[in-house]
Automatic annotation (TrEMBL):
It comes from Postia placenta MAD-698-R-SB12. Its main location: nucleus. This is DNA damage-binding protein 1. The keyword Membrane does not apply. PANTHER family: DNA REPAIR/RNA PROCESSING CPSF FAMILY. Residues 296-311 have a biased composition (Basic and acidic residues). Residues 906-1231 form the RSE1/DDB1/CPSF1 C-terminal domain.
Length: 1267
């Protein structure tokens, strides 16, 4: 069975809202595709308080004010196929922990209604008493509220406006609830009108607050063709402070702003007198139309049609110089200033002046906004789908670039200087002063300003929308990374995504070769900062003094008391032990000292630090191993105990006496019948209780047996007695560490987590929990194939374990279990913690020739690197491992003004996989765009083709593309002279095809291309001994356009745009059908699972899978194979790409057969992992999911089985539940639940989960580690 999990959650922001959810605290609520996040507004910035997963696609968010309070509840509207209106409440418990709770919901689903064509939204009246939802054509759902809670029964009202583009509640003083509506009428005209929501009559009669008016197509020429239709902004009434009894200049009755066209229009509410006059005319017209005289009724109807077609003059207007407006927010409570953002991230402030007129002031450029929220003190939150969300501060004066235009204003737009807005200039100059001639008439004022007014305070990573992706080991560390084609508009980018910790380099010390181990030293034991670093090679020891960020000095060994002519096995600061006689009972205490113990293969050496000379000086008498005829092979030191392993299998425990002499407490010889004396390979005596100066346990490992034993130090009588030992490990333990990952100090403490960690010679780390004097819960983490060394380190303010082998990882404790976080480092011989004044909380790493100092951060986060491309929006990417380059197809569009032609330029670019510099580019013809990119599996030779690119010729008058090209490129990065005449990217072959090359694949030296509704097979041939060309050798035709194509060996899987999938075999270059599925799936992405199975996603946000069922009795003439659908699952997101493989580094816990199959990428920025789970485990996990789903209900009373059932535009199917897939994210909640017994027992014996709790935990931890 396949398990669906999430590696990176959706990051695209849908809506945002500023409100107060608790007393005397303001909040920012951010709605992403399936999650709400709540932030509190603090003086230091935004602080995340809580989040809530919504089992549905969020399309709208609103606040419901509570009576007599500034607090609000939240309204969340989810999209089809199961629209719901969910009422949420913010709750803070006695411990101060906050959460969002779902209390009520309104089910909006109607199987027989037609979903709304343009807008699914909810509008809330300013009083918070009524909300109106539009999610079906010609119908509004009205919901009433009292004190933030639903009251009454929601009801439907029918309206004749079928194609709503926008709606909002008007800011009127009347008791009626007036809804402003912008719609597309039956004559394809854009009309603005208003309707009163009559609660008593359950109807929506036409309102006279806003007379119906037809909007000009010259102002709104693309109202129904752009992604964002026009928006309505309600404006409250305003009384000018300068108005007197005889003048109402600057005052207005309130109204609505219409934004999204070439002009911003303001329509004022009708006065009461005008409303009464309109009502009288309407009554008389209705009376005449109902007259018995047909001619009079006909005349009345004609006059009514004439009245409907009239255009009401706007109160004020101003030209909009840029692209479609996608977001807005008010900047004050009076409705005088608004912030507008367009599709390319350009922000402008729209303000009313005292005319009243409209003034448009450019502010700056940000990420393309899908939502704007003004917080406080000129701080604005910008939520984005195409770029990183941002927290901005808008300054009143420029902060940079004072000589540059804030935003470019196109020619033909009348502009005024900022001085024209000054009150001192009132009446002294023309309000529409033209800086350039050629304006399109008078109206509001567009101000030309210069300088940068925007300061970015914070950014929030967003990788949506992911159009394509590639998986590659970019740095040779063995850790795969994801490269995504993300962003759009003015924020196109490549995103490099990987899991694990980030190492931030602080300093490098060159010329330090062959280091095998390192230790930090302090001047005194109780000091908190390190001052020295000791490095050891196989032949010598070096001492380094850390003088500052830029100065690290190597001490002269001839003047230093530390042994420099021999390698060091262990070294550490120690306190001085003092014996106290209390009534005949001798106890020990410890006091601060400058003593240091150094252990070499020959002796145990004692020195002390002389602060006056800045050197270490010998002190006391050494303990010489040669006197016993042995050498020291391993050692470990804590504050009072020195444990050494001697050759011949002897372990000796030492301490320091009062006369600075080493004394032997006990020795033990280890031997084995099969191996004789057991040579010691590694030792650890690190205390589990770090507040103590001594350890009560020792870990020791042995050559030959590959075992690790735990020895007791709890009492003198039990010194060095074996408590337990491991079975024979897979390889020799070369590094050991006893470590307590919890905050508890003793066994009685709840958070006491003692562990044994063993770094093996084969590149793996083995961990055990040490509990009840036994080693339990074995886990194995793979770090390559080089011996692993272990050391403590500080990451994100917490002490963790740094493990270095072929690859490096940080092991840390979280959610009551041990986790592994890969670090992008290679060629690291050893690591050691370092906490000096110049380098606090750092890690020093030894390479083959240098020392590197840096910080480890983000162990529990994924690392995302952004390669900004700006207006070059990446659409396709392919990685060439031989050339170490990325081939990226980009489309560049110059930001147009609304209704003006968009100039697009498509290109194919090569990027270096380390620096991401642009190595070469190929630009298509003006009417041509790159549609597909394929990296050819060559070794990277410059004379061989490395990339195949498919293009399409775009002609607006064609319903289906008729021309395209297949291009073959080679790349010569070593060329000395790269120019337009001698380029690095060489076009070696080109072929014209009859359509768009949607996809291409490489099959046994052949190029298979999906061209419109055909699959064509090409072979590349050398012509005339030098040039290369494409030769068509086979073709397979389909009924529908083939948009997806993947290859597995000689099998090609084809997905078409309408129907389903087909499986082909490329035999001798000629494609033949293996099997086809004929069900209408509308697939959008597919990938092979081996040669006999397929996984895919369709436009209804479902995942599906097929298995090939071969004909048991094939004949020469006929082979009736079938594709059997063996999986269906509702994901709730549109998948754009599948990639075979996984991202997490492999770690193994027992024999649980779980392995990653595929990664998938969606338009909302989600990265998911599909894993394969063995049937005997999947059976138990499916039963667990079923039992959990009966108790865990989603917000809005969404039940898990229905939520994951495959869906179409009519809703989820009651007849077909999800099958073949398991919801891994849902099942993993088991690890966080306290009472799990009910989930295992079920409601009957048939529902009982027979797998033990411990094994379920191990399986789910394994599952969690793979994503």
């Amino acid at each position: 069975m396949r398990v669906v999990t999430t590696f990176h959650p959706p990051s695209s922001v849908v809506r945002s809202l500023k409100c107060s959810l608790a007393e005397e605290q303001e909040h920012l609520v951010v709605a992403k595709a399936n999650r709400l996040e709540v932030f509190s507004l603090r003086p230091e910035g935004l602080r995340r308080e809580c989040s809530l997963e919504i089992w549905g696609r969020i399309v709208s968010l609103a606040a419901i004010p509570l009576d007599d309070s500034k607090q609000s509840n939240l309204l969340v509207l989810t999209d089809h196929p199961d629209p719901k209106l969910i009422i949420l409440t913010y709750v803070v418990d006695n411990s101060g922990n906050s959460s969002i709770v779902s209390k009520e919901f309104v089910d909006l689903y109607d199987r027989y209604a037609r979903p709304a064509e343009f807008v699914t939204d909810v509008a809330v009246d300013p009083t918070g008493q009524v909300a109106v939802v539009s999610c079906y054509t010609g119908r509004l759902k009205v919901v009433q509220f009292e004190d933030g809670k639903q009251t009454g029964v929601p009801f439907d009202i029918s309206i004749p406006e079928l194609f709503l583009l926008a709606m909002t509640f008007m800011r009127t003083d009347a008791d009626a609830y007036t809804l402003g509506i912008l719609h597309y009428d039956h004559q394809q005209r854009l009309q603005l009108l208003s309707r009163d929501i009559d609660i008593a009559d359950l109807s929506a009669p036409q309102s006279y607050h806003l007379p119906p008016t037809i909007l000009s197509t010259s102002v709104f020429p693309t109202a129904t063709t752009v992604e964002t239709p026009p928006l309505l902004i309600p404006v409250p009434p305003y009384a000018s402070q300068e108005a007197d009894e005889d003048s109402t200049a600057g005052s207005h009755l309130g109204g609505v702003l219409i934004v999204g066209g070439r002009k911003v229009l303001f329509f004022e509410h009708a006065s009461e007198e005008r409303q009464e006059a309109k009502k009288g005319k309407q009554r008389r017209a209705s009376k005449r139309m109902s007259s018995g005289d047909p001619s009079e009724a006909a005349k009345a109807r004609e006059k009514e049609k004439e009245r409907e077609s009239r255009k009401v003059k706007q109160k004020a207007s101003v030209k909009w110089p840029w692209s479609e407006i996608t977001a807005w927010c008010p900047l004050d409570d009076d409705g005088r200033r608004f912030l507008l953002g367009d599709a390319y991230g350009r922000l402008a402030m729209l303000a009313f002046d005292e005319t009243p007129g409209l003034v448009l002031i450019p502010v700056g450029e940000t990420s393309p906004a899908t939502t704007l929220s003004y917080l406080a003190s000129q701080v604005v939150y910008v939520g984005s789908h195409f770029g990183d969300s941002q927290l901005l501060r808008i300054h009143p004066t420029p902060i940079a670039n004072v000589d540059s235009e804030t935003l470019h204003i196109p020619l033909g737009i009348s502009r005024v200087l900022p001085s024209a807005l000054s009150p001192s200039n009132k009446g002294k100059q023309r309000a529409d002063f033209d800086i350039d001639s050629g304006g399109e008439g008078k109206g509001g004022k567009v101000v030309e300003v210069k300088g940068t007014y925007i300061e970015v305070l914070d950014e929030y990573q967003n990788i949506a929308p992911i159009m394509d992706a590639a998986l590659a080991d970019l740095d040779g560390s063995g850790q795969p990374q994801i490269i995504t084609c993300s962003g759009g508009r003015n924020t196109g980018s490549l995103k490099v995504v990987r899991t694990g910790a980030d190492f931030q380099e602080r300093a490098v010390v060159q010329g330090v070769p062959h280091v095998v181990d390192m230790w930090p030293l302090r001047t005194r034991f109780e000091d908190t900062t390190d001052t020295h670093l000791v490095t050891s090679t196989l032949t010598e020891t070096c001492v380094w003094r850390i003088d500052g960020v830029d100065v690290i000095t190597r001490l002269d060994p001839s003047h230093d008391g530390l042994i420099a002519t021999s390698p060091t096995l262990a070294i550490s600061n120690i306190p001085r032990r003092v014996a106290n006689n209390n009534g005949g009972r001798v106890t020990s205490s410890y006091k601060d000292s400058s003593l240091v113990v150094q252990i070499t293969p020959e002796k145990v050496h004692l020195v002390k630090y002389d602060a006056a000379l800045g050197l270490f000086a010998s002190s006391g008498k050494d303990w010489d191993a040669k006197q016993q005829g042995r050498s020291i092979v391993a050692a470990s030191i804590n504050a009072s105990q020195f444990v050494i392993g001697l050759s011949g299998g002897r372990l000796t425990l030492l301490n320091l006496g009062e006369n600075d002499e080493f004394q032997v407490l006990k020795s033990r010889d280890f031997s084995d019948v099969a191996h004789g004396p057991l040579e010691i390979s590694a030792i650890s005596c690190h205390p589990f209780d770090t507040s103590k100066k001594f350890a009560t346990y020792i870990a020791v490992s042995f050559w030959g047996t590959n075992r690790v034993a735990i020895l007791s130090l709890e009492s003198a009588s039990s010194y060095l007695n074996t408590l337990c030992e491991t079975d024979s490990l897979s390889s020799l333990p070369r590094s050991l560490l006893l470590y307590n990952f919890g905050s508890g100090r003793t066994r009685k403490d709840v958070d006491f987590q003692p562990h044994l960690l063993a770094g093996l010679a084969d590149g793996t780390v083995v961990s055990f929990i040490f509990k009840d004097n036994d080693l339990k819960d074995k886990k194995v983490f793979a770090l390559g194939n080089a011996p692993v060394a272990l050391t403590t380190c500080t990451a994100d303010g917490k002490t963790s374990i740094f493990a270095s082998g072929s690859r490096a990882s940080v092991l840390y404790w979280d959610r009551q279990r041990l986790h592994q976080s890969p670090v992008m480092l290679k060629d690291m011989a050893r690591g050691a913690s370092l906490n000096s004044a110049a380098f606090p909380s750092c890690l020093v790493l030894a390479t083959s020739s240098s020392l590197t100092i840096g910080n480890v951060r983000g162990v529990d986060k994924m690392q995302i690197r952004t390669v900004p491309l700006g207006l070059d929006n990446p659409r396709r990417v392919a990685y060439h491992a031989g050339l170490k380059t990325l081939g990226v197809a980009c489309t560049r569009a110059a930001p147009p003004r609304i209704a003006e032609a968009e100039e697009r330029l498509s290109s194919f670019k090569l990027f270096d996989d380390v620096t991401f510099t642009n190595l070469a580019s190929f630009y298509c013809d003006p009417d041509e765009e790159v549609a597909s990119v394929l990296a050819l599996p060559t070794a990277g030779a410059s004379d061989k083709p490395s990339f195949c690119v498919g293009t399409v010729r775009i002609h607006p008058d064609e319903r289906e593309p008729s021309k395209g090209r297949l291009l073959l490129f080679s790349f010569s990065p070593q060329q000395d002279t790269v120019s337009a005449i001698n380029p690095a990217l060489i076009l070696v072959a080109s072929a014209t095809v009859d359509g768009c090359v949607y996809q291409a694949a490489y099959v046994h030296g052949l190029i298979v291309a999906a061209v419109n509704s055909s699959v064509i097979v090409f072979r590349t041939e050398i012509v005339n001994g030098s040039s290369m060309s494409f030769h068509k050798i086979g073709e397979w035709n389909h009924n529908y356009t083939v948009t997806s194509l993947v290859a597995q060996d000689d099998v090609v899987i084809v997905g078409d745009a309408i129907c389903s999938i087909s499986m082909l075999r490329i035999g001798e270059g000629r494609p033949s059908t293996i099997a086809r599925d004929y069900s209408p799936l509308w697939p959008v992405a597919i990938e092979a699972i081996g040669k006999d199975a397929v996984i895919g996603a369709n436009s209804d946000c479902n995942l599906f899978s097929f298995a090939l069922q071969r004909d048991p009795r094939p004949t020469v003439d006929r082979q009736r194979n079938t594709l059997e659908r063996d999986g269906g699952y509702y994901l709730g997101d549109v998948v754009n790409k599948f990639l075979p493989g996984g991202l997490a580094m492999a770690d193994f816990s027992g024999d649980a057969p779980i392995k990653p199959l595929h990664l998938f990428f969606t338009s909302t920025g989600r990265i998911g992992v599909i894993l394969n789970m063995a049937d005997h485990i999947a059976l138990q996990m499916t039963a667990l999911q079923r039992n959990m789903a009966k108790s865990i209900i989603g917000p809005g009373d969404v039940h898990h089985p229905r939520w994951r059932a495959p869906a179409n535009n009519k809703g989820h199917s009651d007849a077909e539940p999800a099958f073949g897939f398991l919801d891994g994210d849902f099942v993993e909640q088991y690890l966080t639940l306290r009472d799990t017994a009910s989930f295992l027992s079920g409601e009957s014996e048939a529902e009982r989960v027979t797998m033990p709790h411990a094994q379920i935990t191990a399986v789910l931890e394994r599952l969690q580690s793979l994503h």
